[in-house]
Inverse folding.
């Protein structure tokens, strides 16, 4: 083969490869988009437009009835407020505790450090359902809460309270792991210099490490926000009253009850997902950074 | 709290004591809400606790659950779900990552799009798909009918129901795994491919001799995490099919929920929970062992 012919062949091959790439990407993109597309268009349809006889693929106008009806079915303002409150406290609290522990595991020397860290990591493979029954009993048996006596009997304890949806999530193996990984990359000379200047370890943590943690804290914020906002298993178990409903529980009540009103259901799906989609689109680079870090080995 | 009693003046803690203090808040929560519950689940599994009273029943629950046809079915269903989801997701994710790793216009857009399903809640995803899957009013059957094909009982036919749950789950987790693979791909140094090209290796050879071996740690990580996540599958089943039809989609986690919180047979459900935990432990240990010998 002459070099000229070779380079022309290469070019043609590259164009072909690119075409093939786009073909596969677009095909997969359609598969990803179809469900989302139908959620959006269905929520603007009237009851007639989704009916069996008069089904229309596209709505005739931007009809908002489905949104109004879906909005009236659940106390949404309360549900959004609940979810927001829980998410904010869980994110703030777990960020602080995780970074604290992550720093200790990365930088401080103490006996049993490795073992304690491994015990924490093992928590990542404990499925929520395998420990939910004792967690429920523990919440129910908190002394002097929810009508309980000093021995934790008689009332409902912390069940159906914000605390039951917040407390278990203030810790988190993943967050500690990510913080430790992140802090391990800092040069040790940083600590030594600060120690010579008379800084204690805690001061090094909050005046040197924390200000340099923007990336990891932003990443964790995003991961925790999504996880907390989207969680429905805990609220399902721990809460009973209408007033404690979170957004996911609110959406979950549509299950089965309004099978004929798919337009309401899709409208509710749309407006409950919107906040998290907005967060995602605004903070995309941290999502990717989060995955890249959590996916790293060692 | 054992701090503050350090004998140093001015209340400065020694480094090791400070270490314990800094991990303490986490460890308290972790102990109360994870470690103690693990022990409690095991203890409860030997009782007939029903929220009111409990008495010790020995291994009766374990004898019962392994005679319980629905529970045995749920174990098989869980394994079936893993088989349907893990490998297909990994193959598709790798393919997608390779496409996204090429320097083409619009790849940022595609990455954003493919990752989108992963940030939606399982409730929202299941709601959206429940409409697609509905046998009469559903979009998928409308599409099939439009091109002259018969309807499929996506979530009403026992043969299809678990496959439908699996398709939805792949849809939801594909982008996450693709981004993991993408970061793995970006860690492979270019000179490996350049050297291979000079040596005359074609694209297929490069893929099998450079890309696949270099991605081993990523593949291992994705596989271990997918196994764990697939084994605890619950939300999809609870919302989309409620375990039906005829228990064809009920999973171990779903049985734990149903027996524990619908029938309040908490001792019984705890025995099932222990089985779930042990299965995941065994699986992860096998994975780790396999992974370690491979990497060495």
């Amino acid at each position: 083969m002459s070099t000229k012919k070779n380079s022309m062949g290469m070019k043609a091959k590259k164009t072909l490869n690119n075409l093939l790439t786009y073909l596969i990407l677009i095909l997969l993109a359609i598969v990803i988009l179809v469900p989302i597309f139908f959620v959006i268009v269905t929520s603007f349809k009237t009851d007639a437009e989704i009916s069996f006889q008069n089904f229309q693929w596209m709505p005739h106008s931007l009809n908002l009835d489905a949104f109004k009806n879906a909005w009236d079915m659940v106390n949404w303002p309360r549900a959004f407020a609940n979810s927001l409150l829980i998410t904010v406290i869980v994110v703030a609290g777990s960020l602080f505790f995780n970074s604290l522990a992550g720093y200790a595991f990365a930088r401080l020397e103490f006996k049993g450090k490795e073992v304690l860290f491994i015990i924490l990591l093992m928590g990542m493979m404990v499925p929520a359902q395998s420990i939910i029954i004792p967690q429920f009993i523990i919440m129910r048996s908190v002394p002097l809460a929810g009508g309980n006596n000093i021995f934790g009997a008689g009332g409902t304890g912390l069940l159906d309270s914000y605390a039951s949806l917040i407390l278990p999530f203030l810790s988190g193996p993943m967050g500690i792991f990510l913080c430790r990984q992140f802090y391990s990359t800092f040069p040790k000379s940083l600590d030594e210099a600060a120690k010579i200047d008379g800084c204690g370890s805690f001061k090094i943590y909050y005046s040197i490490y924390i200000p340099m943690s923007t990336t990891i804290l932003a990443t964790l914020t995003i991961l925790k926000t999504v996880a907390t906002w989207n969680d429905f298993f805990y609220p399902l178990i721990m809460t009973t009253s209408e007033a404690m409903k979170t957004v996911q529980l609110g959406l979950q009540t549509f299950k089965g009850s309004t099978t004929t009103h798919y337009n309401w259901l899709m409208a509710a799906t749309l407006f409950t997902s919107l906040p998290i989609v907005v967060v995602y689109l605004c903070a995309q680079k941290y999502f990717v950074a989060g995955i890249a870090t959590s996916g790293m080995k060692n | 709290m054992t701090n503050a009693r350090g004998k140093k003046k001015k209340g400065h803690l020694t480094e090791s004591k400070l270490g314990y203090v800094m991990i303490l808040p986490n460890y308290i929560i972790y102990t109360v809400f994870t470690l103690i519950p693990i022990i409690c689940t095991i203890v409860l599994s030997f009782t007939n606790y029903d929220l009111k009273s409990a008495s010790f029943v020995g291994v009766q629950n374990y004898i019962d659950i392994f005679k319980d046809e629905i529970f045995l079915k749920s174990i098989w269903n869980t394994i079936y779900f893993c088989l349907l989801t893990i490998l297909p997701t990994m193959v598709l994710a790798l393919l997608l990552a390779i496409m996204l790793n090429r320097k083409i216009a619009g790849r940022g857009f595609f990455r954003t799009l493919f990752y989108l399903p992963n940030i939606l809640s399982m409730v929202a995803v299941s709601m959206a798909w429940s409409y697609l899957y509905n046998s009469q009013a559903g979009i998928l059957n409308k599409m099939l009918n439009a091109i002259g094909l018969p309807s499929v009982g996506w979530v009403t036919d026992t043969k299809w129901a678990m496959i439908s749950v699996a398709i939805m789950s792949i849809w939801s987790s594909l982008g996450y795994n693709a981004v993991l693979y993408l970061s793995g791909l970006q860690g492979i140094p270019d000179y490996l491919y350049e050297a291979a090209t000079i040596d005359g290796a074609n694209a297929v050879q490069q893929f099998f001799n450079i890309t696949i071996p270099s991605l081993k740690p990523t593949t291992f990580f994705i596989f271990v995490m997918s196994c764990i996540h697939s084994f605890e599958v619950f939300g999809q089943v609870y919302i989309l099919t409620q375990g039906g039809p005829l228990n064809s989609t009920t999973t171990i986690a779903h049985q734990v929920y149903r027996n524990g919180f619908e029938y309040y047979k908490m001792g019984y459900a705890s025995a099932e929970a222990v089985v779930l935990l042990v299965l995941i432990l065994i699986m992860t240990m096998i994975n780790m062992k396999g992974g370690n010998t491979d990497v060495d």
About this structure: The radius of gyration of chain B is 25 Å. The domain at 68-295 of chain B is CATH 1.10.3720.10 (MetI-like fold).
